Automatic annotation (TrEMBL):
<feature type="transmembrane region" description="Helical">
    <location>
        <begin position="7"/>
        <end position="28"/>
    </location>
</feature>
<dbReference type="InterPro" id="IPR003594">
    <property type="entry name" value="HATPase_dom"/>
</dbReference>
<feature type="transmembrane region" description="Helical">
    <location>
        <begin position="48"/>
        <end position="63"/>
    </location>
</feature>
<dbReference type="InterPro" id="IPR036890">
    <property type="entry name" value="HATPase_C_sf"/>
</dbReference>
<keyword id="KW-0597">Phosphoprotein</keyword>
<feature type="coiled-coil region">
    <location>
        <begin position="157"/>
        <end position="184"/>
    </location>
</feature>
<feature type="domain" description="DUF7134">
    <location>
        <begin position="5"/>
        <end position="161"/>
    </location>
</feature>
<protein>
    <recommendedName>
        <fullName>histidine kinase</fullName>
        <ecNumber>2.7.13.3</ecNumber>
    </recommendedName>
</protein>
<feature type="transmembrane region" description="Helical">
    <location>
        <begin position="137"/>
        <end position="154"/>
    </location>
</feature>
<dbReference type="GO" id="GO:0046983">
    <property type="term" value="F:protein dimerization activity"/>
</dbReference>
<keyword id="KW-0175">Coiled coil</keyword>
<dbReference type="Pfam" id="PF02518">
    <property type="entry name" value="HATPase_c"/>
</dbReference>
<keyword id="KW-0812">Transmembrane</keyword>
<dbReference type="GO" id="GO:0016020">
    <property type="term" value="C:membrane"/>
</dbReference>
<keyword id="KW-0472">Membrane</keyword>
<dbReference type="InterPro" id="IPR050482">
    <property type="entry name" value="Sensor_HK_TwoCompSys"/>
</dbReference>
<feature type="domain" description="Signal transduction histidine kinase subgroup 3 dimerisation and phosphoacceptor">
    <location>
        <begin position="189"/>
        <end position="254"/>
    </location>
</feature>
Length: 390
């Protein structure tokens, strides 16, 4: 339908141009030109042959968009015959102007210049050798100006069309780039939320599992101790729900006012105390003068300690102990979690938690080392670079 519609429009235009050209051809007969003071010696009066040639010159207008230069060349044949037979119309006709405009509008500069050259040359030939040779020089100048103006209008339209296409293409590229950036941002945000949820759930569920196991073992012999363990489970569960609500609340636009601050190294004493209640003897050591730490590094350091202690609680075994060391240096923050257990992580691949910690540390340009200690046990250590002491 898109191909047929321009062809239909051009066919209608060809019919209109033919009607106008025939009318001009019939009206401008030798008698009228003589009345206007123009010498018309040798000029033939309009007849059936002349009308047929005019119609043949107008017919190529129907394919002016598909083959503009070919249509112009096809129209030149009857135009030349009319000049040679003495009818004297030349390329100043309406069909010639329409085809010249089409060549300039739908083809490149080289073809457009070729079309303009053909138009000018043929008119010059008809002006020198044809019946219109007696026209005044001002009349020839007007025809030349009209030809150049029609050609310039076609070129201007082509350049404007190309400019609009470039704008559309640029807008499409920008839209695709924006969509790609949006997808990347969403994927990054999903990954971040997944890491946060894993760290929260893995830590609290591990603590609750250990405390539930302890409560089950002493339920019959020491109900008071079992009650303390159950209370600790309840408290840990509430903490897990609160943290998960804060994380998931980021996805809700109406929950921003309810969000609390993210945990950081200021919460390490409470985390260590929680691990002690769960049965892992834990010690916190802080060296150096604490200074301002970027929020992202603060959260990453906290999650590293949380994941390290969770793995120690899960894999170190009964009677194991852990030490958390935080060392503040002028240009570096050193965080280390060590335990003296049997290092159960060596029996398999690191879990998603340690993979997430590796991504967190790499995000802030830190260096992470995970592995067994030389004297036994397991160690998780990260060193975060700080710029200008921050």
């Amino acid at each position: 339908m898109r191909v047929g519609r321009p062809l239909f429009h051009d066919t209608v235009l060809a019919v209109a141009v033919a009607a106008a050209s025939v009318a001009l051809f019939v009206l401008y007969d030798p008698e009228q030109l003589r009345a206007q003071g123009v010498l018309v010696d040798g000029m033939r009066a309009p007849d059936a042959l002349g009308v047929t040639l005019v119609l043949l010159a107008c017919a190529p207008v129907a394919v002016r968009r598909r083959w503009p230069l070919g249509a112009m060349c096809a129209a030149l044949v009857p135009e030349t015959l009319m000049t040679g037979l003495g009818y004297g119309t030349g390329l100043a006709g309406v069909a010639g102007l329409v085809l010249l405009y089409s060549v300039a509008s739908y083809r490149g500069l080289a073809m457009a210049l070729c079309g303009l050259t053909l138009s000018v040359v043929l008119y010059v030939v008809s002006a020198v050798a044809g019946p219109v040779a007696a026209l005044r020089w001002s009349d020839h100048l007007v025809v030349a100006v009209v030809l150049v103006a029609v050609w310039g209008a076609g070129r201007s339209l082509r350049l404007r069309r190309a400019y609009l296409e470039e704008l559309k293409d640029r807008a499409a590229r920008l839209e695709r780039a924006h969509a790609a950036d949006t997808r990347a941002a969403r994927a990054e945000e999903r990954s971040r939320i997944a890491r946060e949820l894993h760290d929260v759930v893995a830590h609290h569920v591990t603590v609750m599992t250990v405390q539930a196991s302890a409560a089950r073992r002493v339920l019959g012999s020491d109900p008071e101790l079992a009650n303390e363990a159950l209370s600790a489970i309840e408290h840990t569960g509430r903490m897990a729900l609160t943290e998960m609500r804060d994380i998931v609340g980021v996805l809700r636009t109406d929950a921003r006012a309810e969000l609390g601050p993210q945990p950081g190294m200021r919460d390490l004493p409470a985390l260590v105390e929680q691990m002690r209640e769960a049965g892992l003897e834990t010690l916190l050591r802080v060296a150096g003068e604490p200074g301002p730490v970027p929020a992202g590094v603060d959260l990453a350091a906290y999650r590293l300690v949380q994941e390290g202690l969770t793995n120690s609680l899960r894999h170190a075994g009964a009677g194991a102990s852990a030490v958390v060391t935080v060392r503040h240096e002028p240009h570096e923050l050193d965080v280390r979690v060590e335990d003296d257990g049997r290092g159960g992580l060596l029996s398999g691949e690191p879990g998603h938690g340690l993979v997430g910690i590796r991504e967190r540390v790499a995000l802030y340009g830190g260096v992470l080392s995970i592995g067994p200690r030389s004297g036994g046990g397991f160690e998780v250590r990260a060193r975060f670079p700080l710029k200008d002491g921050q």
